[in-house]
Write a sequence for this structure.
């Protein structure tokens, strides 16, 4: 299905309207609340308080997600799309639990920017740190939101120092709080020196009324609180912590906003920054490193596969990030790894747990392909001349377990489940190229194993016994190094389905020794490929 000239021409314009980002934070920092408040400010929900209700409904009807309910955490990621100031905002949600940080890494591969939400009382927590290393490694532009300023917290100047020291990202405050944490009245907008005063609404269910005051009136009305904010702003000017869009887009500095998602203070300023500062969808490099122009025919890659979104049908939805061209539902595409045609009749946009058929999409958008059983994470789909995007990098797993079916009569179901769950990236499945048929599962967080075992039992009817495999560190390696490792006791080389070789070690200490003693060996902490392409 070729595009008309008008459609082709419209692609860069549509891409320029797109803002595609993810919110990352430590659990409880306020990601869900902020997401909902974005929807409130965009007019996508009339009143805050609806998302949780929707979540509860979904959990009540979903079967494998009863695990989620038991733990009281969110495992699933959703993609929300809304319009704001004539822009199309795609918000890719990430799981809050650290055990699913692999999922977060993949979501970040599909995002053009991220918002880091920090609890002003807690600052940079360990999980935030790990995710930020990923943003840094990818040079992903990051906006920072210091949340929960409505209650007592730490000195924000101290937090700036912590962000710079621990994350290596230079925070450049765009707004600064007026009033102490717990007595939060509004923000000083450093771009024009004015005071934005907020008023609370009942339970923050509706947008907080705002009033913009010039510095003279702010001083007269807020006195000491305004004086302190101005002093801090001068100090920030002096040390050069000022908004710099170029270094933000290069992933070196982070425009910082303060607020309270609960009371809606500062939410509009942050959402405006998404539109005004975050980059639009831009041309992305293909696997050869050439930038694929936005107006090329459609191409995109799978960054997430979600099973059982509709529990009645045990279906799978593959989420595809559009990188070039215009997507029109029903257009035949090609699945890059296999070269086979791929039907897009069942394309959907997914809003929370609700689905609408999607008719068209542009670079930056995410389409959900329902019942896309044959797709794997990282796969490219394209129209026209062949193209493939680079595989999504993943990080070395740290936990390993050997897996066997409890009932050998369920051997077939066990293997079917193993293949499917590996495709979805629930766990990595490693096999011995030389023989031992018992697969070794690899994960970053222990709960990945729990989800694996639960889904294997409930969806595929195969209970599994998972036993610790005796390894505690892994590195991506090559054929030559794996020959050398054959002679090393306590290590083993296994292969993923995509051909990546992983060297496993009994302890991080053993790995460290190998790295020191054999600098010529290939032991890479970043595993290059997730897909078989
Ligand atoms: P998460 O998705 O990052 O895990 O965090 P979530 O938004 O669920 O927020 C975690 C808790 O922090 C919630 O309280 C929420 O109401 C609260 N919270 C979020 N933003 C703010 C804020 O700006 N100020 C204050 N004071 N609290 C905030 P909860 O008691 O766990 O849940 P709920 O009963 O309020 O729903």
């Amino acid at each position: 299905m070729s595009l008309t000239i008008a459609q082709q021409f419209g692609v860069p314009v549509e891409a320029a309207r797109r803002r595609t980002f993810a919110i990352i934070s430590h659990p409880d920092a306020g990601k869900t609340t902020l997401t909902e408040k974005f929807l409130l400010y965009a007019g996508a929900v009339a009143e805050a308080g609806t998302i949780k209700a929707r979540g509860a409904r979904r959990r009540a009807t979903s079967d494998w997600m009863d695990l989620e309910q038991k733990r009281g955490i969110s495992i699933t990621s959703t993609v929300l799309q809304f319009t704001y100031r004539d822009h199309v905002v795609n918000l890719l949600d990430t799981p809050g639990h650290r055990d699913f940080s692999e999922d977060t890494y993949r979501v970040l591969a599909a995002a053009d920017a991220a918002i880091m939400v920090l609890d002003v009382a807690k600052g940079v927590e360990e999980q935030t740190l790990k995710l930020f290393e990923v943003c840094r490694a990818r040079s992903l532009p990051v906006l920072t939101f210091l949340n929960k300023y409505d209650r007592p917290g730490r000195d924000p100047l101290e937090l700036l120092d912590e962000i710079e020291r621990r994350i290596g990202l230079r925070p450049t405050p765009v707004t600064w709080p007026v009033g102490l944490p717990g007595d939060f009245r509004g923000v000083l907008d450093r771009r024009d020196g004015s005071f934005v005063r907020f008023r609370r609404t009942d339970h923050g269910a509706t947008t907080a009324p705002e009033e913009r005051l010039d510095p003279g009136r702010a001083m007269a009305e807020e006195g000491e609180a305004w004086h302190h904010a101005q002093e801090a702003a001068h100090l920030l000017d002096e040390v050069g912590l000022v908004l710099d869009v170029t270094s933000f887009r290069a992933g070196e500095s982070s425009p910082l906003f303060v607020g309270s998602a609960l009371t809606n203070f500062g939410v509009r300023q942050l959402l405006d920054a998404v539109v005004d500062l975050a980059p639009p969808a831009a041309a992305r490099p293909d696997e050869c490193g050439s930038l694929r122009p936005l107006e090329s025919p459609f191409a995109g890659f799978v960054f997430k596969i979600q099973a059982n979104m509709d529990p009645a049908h045990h279906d799978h939805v593959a989420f595809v990030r559009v990188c070039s061209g215009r997507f029109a539902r029903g257009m035949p595409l090609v699945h890059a790894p296999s070269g086979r045609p791929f039907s897009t009749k069942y394309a959907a946009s997914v809003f929370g747990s609700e689905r609408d058929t999607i008719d068209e999409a542009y670079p930056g958008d995410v389409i959900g392909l329902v019942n896309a059983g044959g797709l794997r994470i990282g796969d490219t789909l394209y129209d026209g001349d062949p193209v493939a995007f680079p595989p999504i990098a993943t990080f070395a797993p740290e936990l390993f377990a050997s897996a066997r079916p409890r009932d050998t009569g369920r051997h077939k179901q066990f293997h079917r489940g193993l293949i499917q769950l590996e495709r979805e990236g629930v766990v990595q499945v490693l096999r011995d190229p030389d023989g031992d048929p018992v697969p070794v599962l690899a994960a970053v967080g222990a709960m990945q194993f729990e989800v694996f075992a639960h889904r294997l039992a409930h969806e595929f009817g195969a209970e599994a016994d998972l036993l610790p495999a005796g390894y505690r560190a892994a590195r991506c390696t090559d054929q030559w190094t794996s020959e050398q490792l054959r002679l090393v006791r306590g290590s083993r080389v296994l292969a993923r389905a995509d051909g990546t070789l992983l060297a496993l070690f009994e302890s991080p200490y053993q790995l460290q020794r190998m790295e020191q003693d054999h600098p010529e060996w290939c032991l890479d902490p970043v595993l290059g490929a997730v897909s078989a392409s």
Notes: The chain has 15 helices and 32 strands. Residues 21-79+88-276 form a domain with the Rossmann fold fold (CATH 3.40.50.300).
